[in-house]
Specification:
Layout: H1 2-41, E1 47-52, E2 59-64, E3 70-77, E4 85-89, H2 91-100, E5 107-109, E6 115-117, E7 121-123, H3 124-129, H4 132-135, E8 138-140, E9 144-146, E10 151-152, E11 166-170, E12 174-178
Antiparallel strand pairs: 1-2, 2-10, 3-9, 3-11, 4-7, 4-8, 5-6, 11-12
């Protein structure tokens, strides 16, 4: 009986070491994954600033990266009440569209059957109104990757003096909220 008890104890101890080793490996693996996640989340927040446009000498917003891995996934101004340009006309896709639409005169179709001029830049609200065929000539601006120190100036359809809140969605859904009224130059 004592021999059987000794064998049982030895088997139990051996299983315990195996289980401890598996737990140790799981903890080590989780620690490595945790470090990867922490590194991904440690991306420095981009800066939001204002500058004077070289084109029309108006004050404009810009976002400047403080990290090599900043990816701007979306920009929302005044809770979506100030449209941000999110699509740009793709000239290659436009050429294909022209071939399949011989009477094309830069008017594209909306879902309601009306037409509009095929602008170079459009907001999300306009894009949603286009029929599927007309959507094919536009490509999204976001996600937008910025290297360290690089700036991106979004186009928007409201006056800079009317901007109360800017939300910048970065790298996988985290968002940064800015209140630019305090940063205006004049």
């Amino acid at each position: 009986m004592t021999k059987l008890l000794k064998i049982f104890v030895l088997v139990f101890i051996a299983l315990g070491f195996v289980a401890c080793d598996e737990v140790s490996n799981a903890v080590e693996s989780a620690t490595k994954e945790g470090k990867k996640i922490a590194k991904a989340l440690s991306i420095e927040q981009p800066l939001l600033g204002t500058d004077i446009s070289d084109y029309d000498f108006k004050q404009t917003l810009y976002i400047q990266s403080q990290d090599n891995n900043t990816i701007i996934e979306d920009i929302i101004i005044n809770r979506g009440n100030c449209g941000v340009i999110k699509y740009v006309r793709d000239d290659d896709a436009l050429s294909v569209y022209k071939e399949s639409h011989p009477k094309f005169d830069y008017d594209i179709k909306l879902k309601n059957g009306e037409t509009m001029f095929a602008r170079t830049l459009i907001t999300d609200n306009i894009f949603k109104q286009l029929d599927a065929d007309s959507k094919s000539i536009y490509k999204p601006i976001f996600p937008k990757k910025l290297a360290y120190g690089k700036k991106f100036s979004p186009n928007y359809d409201c006056n800079i003096d009317d901007i109360i809140k800017v939300e910048v969605v970065v790298n996988g859904g985290g968002s940064i909220v800015y209140k630019p009224k305090e940063m205006l130059l004049f």
